[in-house]
């Protein structure tokens, strides 16, 4: 009903004679809202006599009575027209102001005294005045009323007397009732009782009836559309079927809403699982809680009125729940919601953001990695999959019976012909199982609706678009009654109702289309109308011109006049109006930092976009997908034609809908593939949709066909491959395959053409090698890289390609290192460094490329234990990067962090622990800054640096400080490994190893054991995939694990772990003794120690003799490095079988003591001193002689004292 049609004047007989006069608003059938002081005598508290109201559209005075009288403190009342036939009107939308700050535009229409006619035949009659102004939120807080400042000129005569009782509107919401014209403001301000205070009165809500809802002005969306067709009853926001079950989920969601601050939750599940309905029920309960919440469904469309939802979140006057449906297709809107909610929470508000999506795939990971704030907030988000509504087949008949009863009532209210529930056949024994899987909630309701509708579409409706009243009305089905639709629950399966349940429903929806079209003057066939709905559902339209152009592509409509297509476009807009836009958001170049206006309050919108909001599609999704699939099957090749006549936004929506439809309608596979293959322009859009889709297989097939089976120019194909995201769990395998296919296409060129494209081929092969490495296929990556390197070497005669050759060699070195072939990797990186040095020699500016190659070489030298050389290389690299960072910090900081990272490793290994700590602290600081702005690129490196920081702190004995970065590194790698295990599992294993060490140092042995066992398990998985790459890492992890096992008294398990490590290291030490022999000796020492403790003396001595045989020549060559290890061996041997030559023992101990003192190794020096004093007591002469020979001084007094 139009707003002026709700305006009424209110009259009555004053107690002392005369007439009372005021304004009012028709808020329902025969129900009028007005001010209490107009209709209740202040002195007696009784209603005035002779109350009557007249509307602008009906001059008749309708007697009334007061049905709710407010109170002395609440100046509002509700009147009921005595005659039930009088003044019919639908319900209004009730609202409240959510924001505690800012202005809210509003208006009121009433009968002020200033509008009283003073001359002519209408003398004494008051006309209406439209008052416009702004509610200044934050004014009148003590009184709790709304203070409205006038926008325009105000009356001089009589002020606003007579406006009392007029409804105050903000947009589409009634937010208050005018009650006062304060004299101090000289008619420039009116005061209103807010609806929010009325809502707290049970008598007020009871008078309104059960359907009334209180919305917030800032968050309110468009009004709910009245049920007009059977398909509407299946929408979540229609709530045609009662809400059932979900007790556990509602308890969990309610608990999640507890507390303050900001929390985000992602609820996933297939279409038809009940996500939107569950979110709507949560909203309803929060709105009706003792301390009500504001709830907001964020669309892309405009908000009601001019009050943006973003401003409401700046300082809301209560807790807020924000819900976003179809989040996977709307990452930009998700980002906006998180930004706004974060700002509100920072200001002290309580905000919850509930995201609904079909899955948490690449879109979720990419959103988290898009900037630091999103990563911080979403990393703490709770992600859970919604289980099917019914998991017990025995509960299905009850749920089905309830659906039949509720849908029967809804169809009867709509006057839609249908069968009574009693005519629906019972379920057969096989049916219940099909209602307990994914999407079963919608399957059940669709089957119930199809069973009620049946095959007979009935006679034409007598009037309008509604059918005749059903001739029956059965009572509701009892909850335990066994009923059945007589058909299949799953879409696409034949049912006794005649075909898939979707087709049954669409046959009845057709009547709605046909009669609505007739009212628009359209005489098109049912089939043409169906096709028009299908294409509107598939593509959407931004405006009328685009809608008309789109309809020209519908088969059989291209030859119609433009006037017909215009009428059809307007019919579609009225058929499914854009009040709840549905289209998925189109690709956006960047996430916006402020939310777009809009929102909705009711049971739940569907995804939307302002760009494609001329009409809404058919809903629910499953029905829409069936309709689209049938259209695609009806016209082979039509999709290919359509894609050449649509915008990028329409292509995005079409591919999104088609990818969803394909999940249930595999028969459209060839058509979708053909569409992508025939239209290269949609390929980039298909790549984006693939990262958001439940199952992108059909899109990837189309992209594959485009590159492999068409005559796409090679350069265009190469450009498409360049669009592939660097990291994507969904696209990683596809990226490898497509890049390999592109390389193969170049390889098959005739020699005459290949020579022209050789540089491009080499570049593609080099990229392929990186893709394969990131996919954990290092051996294949090495093969591709060697081919690229070979080409670049041929081209290197032209110095233009020398830099590319160095890049390829750098990548080859990394691949060799990944495969554990470190010596070959070192030789390769040396070649890259030589080329870089040659190129840098001709360039006076420092070369970042040279510095990067030096850093890579330094990493490999670290893996080989050659830390002096590594320190020199990393020092050179660091010096270059420091100079570059001064002039270009944005581009040079990542490389500087990398060189500092490896510099810290070398310094630490060489005992320069304070310098090492300083270097790694700088690295972490830089990488934290970088990860804040681009976590996708820098979070992995930050995780590695945190692990090294932990190690450096541990080396300095700062074990409490070392634990926090070790835990951060582990969490980061866990997160990364979930999305890309092939790439990040090695980092996770290293982080777990380090965490094990930190926990042991803090004597948290149980936690250390758990971390150590996880590390070993990860390395075992890695070795299965790449046997040659991780043996030494597994050995180190097994050794680490033996520590907590030993302390916890599990000696047999500890010894078994170390023996496994020995078995792993023996072939490594044999192949490369310089790199691995000393590690094998250390393991053998551990075996001796543990075997001795277990009383297995012979086994211990055998291991110990092997260790001593390795350490003795090493100590002779490098006493500073290996004497402590040899000393430990002798200590163990002394306990197992005392040495026979005391002089040799004394010499060893003196050497160890000297090393401990020189290097500041206090525990080693103390242990050696104690052992030397013990020897001096038993063999003083031998000890003195050894001291003279080695130290060339007299023994110290402490050595000779008893």
TrEMBL record:
**Feature: compositional bias, Pro residues:** 578-589
Tell me the InterPro entries matching this sequence: Peptidase_S1_PA, TPR-like_helical_dom_sf, TPR_rpt
* Transmembrane region(s): none
Which residue windows are coiled coil? none
Q: For the region Disordered, give the residue spans.
A: 454-500, 578-610
SMART domains tied to this protein: TPR (SM00028)
Signal sequence range: none
SUPFAM superfamilies in the record = TPR-like, Trypsin-like serine proteases
Q: Where does the source fall among the domains of life?
A: Bacteria
Q: Please name one Pfam family that this protein belongs to.
A: TPR_10
| Record PANTHER family | FUNGAL LIPASE-LIKE DOMAIN-CONTAINING PROTEIN (PTHR19959:SF119), KINESIN LIGHT CHAIN (PTHR19959)
Q: Which named protein is this? A: Tetratricopeptide (TPR) repeat protein
Q: Which organism is it from?
A: Sphaerisporangium krabiense
């Amino acid at each position: 009903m139009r707003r002026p049609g709700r305006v009424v004047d209110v009259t009555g007989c004053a107690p002392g004679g005369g007439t009372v006069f005021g304004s009012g608003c028709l808020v329902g059938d025969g129900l009028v809202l007005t001010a209490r002081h107009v209709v209740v005598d202040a002195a007696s508290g009784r209603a005035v006599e002779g109350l009557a109201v007249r509307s602008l559209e009906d001059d008749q005075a309708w007697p009334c009575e007061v049905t709710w009288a407010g109170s002395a403190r609440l100046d509002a009342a509700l009147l009921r027209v005595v005659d039930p036939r009088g003044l019919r009107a639908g319900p209004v939308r009730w609202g409240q102001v959510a924001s505690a700050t800012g202005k809210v535009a509003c208006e009121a229409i009433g009968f002020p005294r200033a509008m009283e006619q003073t001359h002519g035949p209408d003398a004494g009659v008051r006309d209406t005045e439209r008052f416009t102004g702004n509610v200044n939120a934050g004014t009148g807080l003590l009184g709790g009323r709304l203070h409205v400042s006038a926008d325009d000129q105000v009356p001089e005569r009589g002020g606003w007397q007579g406006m009392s009782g007029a409804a105050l509107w903000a947009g589409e919401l009634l937010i208050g009732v005018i009650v006062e014209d304060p004299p101090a403001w000289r008619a420039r301000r009116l005061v209103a009782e807010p609806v929010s205070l009325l809502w707290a009165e049970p008598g007020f809500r009871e008078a309104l009836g059960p359907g009334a809802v209180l919305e917030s002005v800032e968050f309110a969306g468009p009004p709910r559309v009245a049920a007009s067709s059977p398909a509407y009853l299946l929408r979540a926001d229609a709530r045609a079927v009662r809400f059932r079950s979900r007790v556990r989920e509602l308890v969990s969601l309610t608990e999640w809403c507890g507390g303050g601050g900001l929390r985000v939750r992602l609820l996933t599940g297939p279409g038809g699982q009940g996500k939107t309905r569950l979110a709507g029920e949560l909203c309803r309960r929060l709105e009706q809680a003792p301390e009500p919440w504001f709830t907001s469904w964020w669309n892309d469309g405009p908000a009601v009125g001019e009050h943006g939802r973003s401003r409401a979140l700046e300082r809301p006057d209560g807790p807020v729940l924000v819900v976003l449906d179809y989040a996977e297709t709307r990452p930009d809107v998700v980002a906006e919601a998180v930004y706004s909610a974060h700002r509100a929470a920072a200001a002290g508000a309580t905000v919850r953001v509930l995201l609904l999506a079909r899955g948490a795939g690449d879109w979720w990971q990419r959103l988290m990695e898009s900037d630091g704030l999103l990563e911080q907030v979403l990393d703490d988000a709770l992600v859970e999959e919604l289980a099917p509504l019914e998991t017990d087949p025995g509960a299905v008949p009850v749920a089905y019976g309830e659906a039949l009863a509720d849908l029967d009532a809804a169809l009867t209210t709509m006057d839609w012909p249908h069968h009574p529930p009693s005519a629906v056949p019972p379920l057969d024994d096989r049916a219940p199982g099909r209602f307990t899987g994914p999407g079963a909630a919608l399957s059940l309701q669709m089957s119930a609706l199809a069973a009620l509708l049946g095959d007979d579409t009935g006679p034409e409706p007598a009037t309008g678009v509604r059918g005749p009243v059903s001739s029956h009305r059965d009572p509701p089905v009892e909850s335990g009654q066994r009923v059945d639709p007589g058909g299949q629950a799953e879409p696409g399966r034949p049912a006794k109702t005649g075909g898939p349940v979707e087709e049954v429903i669409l046959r009845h929806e057709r009547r709605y289309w046909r009669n609505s079209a007739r009212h628009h003057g359209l005489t098109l066939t049912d089939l043409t109308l169906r096709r028009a709905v299908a294409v509107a559902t598939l593509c959407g339209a931004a405006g009328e011109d685009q809608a008309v152009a789109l309809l020209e592509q519908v088969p059989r409509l291209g030859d119609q006049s433009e006037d017909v297509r215009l009428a059809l476009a307007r019919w579609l807009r009225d058929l499914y109006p854009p009040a709840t836009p549905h289209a998925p958001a189109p690709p956006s170049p960047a996430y916006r930092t402020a939310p777009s206006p809009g929102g909705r309050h009711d049971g739940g919108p569907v995804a939307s976009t302002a760009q494609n909001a001329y009409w809404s599609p058919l809903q629910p999704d499953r029905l829409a997908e069936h309709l689209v699939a049938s259209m695609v099957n009806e016209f082979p090749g039509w999709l290919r034609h359509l894609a050449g006549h649509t915008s990028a936004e329409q292509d995005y929506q079409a591919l999104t809908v088609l990818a969803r439809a394909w999940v249930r309608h595999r028969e459209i596979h060839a058509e979708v593939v053909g569409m992508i293959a025939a239209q290269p322009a949609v390929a980039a859009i298909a790549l984006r949709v693939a990262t958001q889709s439940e199952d992108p297989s059909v899109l990837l097939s189309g992209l594959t066909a485009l590159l492999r089976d068409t005559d796409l120019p090679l350069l265009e194909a190469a450009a498409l491959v360049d669009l592939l995201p660097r990291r994507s769990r969904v696209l990683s395998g596809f990226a490898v395959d497509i890049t390999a296919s592109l390389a193969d296409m170049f390889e098959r060129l005739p020699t005459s053409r290949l020579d022209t494209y050789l540089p491009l081929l080499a570049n593609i092969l080099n990229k392929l090698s990186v893709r394969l490495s990131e996919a954990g296929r290092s051996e294949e990556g090495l093969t591709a890289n060697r081919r690229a390197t070979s080409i670049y070497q041929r081209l290197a005669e032209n110095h233009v390609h020398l830099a590319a050759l160095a890049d390829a060699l750098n990548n080859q070195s990394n691949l060799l290192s990944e495969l554990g072939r470190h010596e070959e990797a070192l030789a390769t990186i040396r070649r890259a460094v030589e080329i870089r040095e040659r190129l840098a020699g001709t360039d006076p500016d420092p070369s970042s490329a040279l510095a990067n190659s030096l850093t890579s070489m330094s990493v490999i030298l670290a893996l080989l234990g050659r830390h002096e050389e590594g320190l020199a290389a990393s020092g050179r690299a660091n010096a270059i990067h420091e100079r570059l960072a001064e002039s270009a910090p944005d581009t040079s900081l990542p490389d500087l962090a990398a060189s500092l990272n490896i510099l810290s490793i070398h310094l630490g290994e060489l005992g320069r622990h304070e310098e090492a700590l300083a270097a790694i602290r700088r690295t972490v600081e830089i990488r934290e800054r970088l990860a804040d702005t681009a976590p996708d690129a820098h979070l992995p490196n930050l995780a590695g640096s945190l692990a090294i920081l932990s190690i450096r702190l541990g080396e300095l004995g700062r074990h409490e400080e070392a634990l926090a970065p070790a835990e951060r590194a582990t969490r980061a790698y866990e997160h990364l490994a979930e999305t890309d295990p092939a790439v990040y599992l090695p980092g996770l294993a290293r982080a777990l190893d380090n965490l094990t060490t930190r926990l042991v140092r803090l004597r948290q042995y149980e936690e250390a054991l758990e971390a150590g066992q996880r590390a070993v398990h990860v390395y075992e998985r890695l070795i299965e995939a790449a046997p040659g790459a991780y043996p030494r890492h597994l050995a180190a992890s097994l050794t680490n694990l033996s520590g907590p096992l030993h302390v916890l008294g599990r000696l047999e398990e500890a010894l078994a772990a170390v023996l496994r490590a020995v078995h792993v290291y023996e072939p490594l030490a044999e192949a490369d003794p310089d790199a691995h022999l000393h590690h094998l000796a250390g393991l053998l020492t551990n075996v001796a120690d543990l075997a001795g403790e277990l009383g297995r003396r012979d086994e211990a001595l055998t291991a110990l003799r092997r260790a001593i045989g390795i350490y003795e020549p090493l100590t002779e060559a490098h006493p500073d490095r290996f004497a402590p290890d040899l000393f430990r061996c002798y200590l163990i041997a002394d306990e197992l079988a005392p040495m026979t030559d005391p002089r040799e023992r004394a010499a060893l101990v003196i050497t160890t003591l000297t090393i401990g003192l020189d290097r500041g190794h206090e525990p080693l020096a103390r242990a050696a001193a104690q052992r030397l004093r013990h020897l001096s007591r038993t063999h003083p002469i031998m000890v003195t002689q050894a001291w003279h020979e080695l130290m060339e001084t007299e023994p110290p007094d402490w050595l000779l004292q008893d």
